[in-house]
Amino acid sequence: MTQLILIRHGETVWNQQRRMQGHSDSPLSETGLRQAQLLARRLKEIAFSALYSSDSGRAHHTARSVAEVTGHDIVLEPRLRERHFGVFEGLTGSEIEANYPADYVRFKSRDQAHVIPGGESASQFRARVFACFDEISSRHNGELVVVITHGLVLDVLYRAALGIAPELPRIHELVNAGINRLRYDGGTWHIEVWGDASHLDAGALTSA
Fold this sequence. Notes:
The protein is α/β, with parallel strands linked by helices and 208 residues long. Helix content is 38%, strand content 17%.
């Protein structure tokens, strides 16, 4: 069994503007910087063996705030990136609909096989996420590991733990810099804590 604390990066400028990020990036907002600092204080109180991060800037910046306080080295892992949204990246929903109407319809229908031009399908994304966490869990059997990643990575594991089909709309929150504790036991995911934002003050609480 491996225990994991999974964390979505701090809020970014594009989060505020409702722009699709994916493999593209934007800097942490002022709120996101505050979230990263408050998260670091919280994690300083927890003994964990390793700190992993997506190599996207927004996740890596969040992880650096943690590492500066806890003293851990950061293990950068490209497979922890957000889903690759290809030509959608950098655009708002209305801009995507206007410029790529057919692809937008398939995306909004949650078509798991649809490959966004220049990006990846939801099925390809899920396979990447599961393969990455299989390796991390095998490497750290019996340990507690912190992973700084992205909203849809968390969504994949939440659905796996609760048996929610990927085609169904999401109703659970993905809190920026929130604490999500899961354990991985013999190929099965279990949620222990989800969306714990007790370390964030009211002005630093954002989600999607």
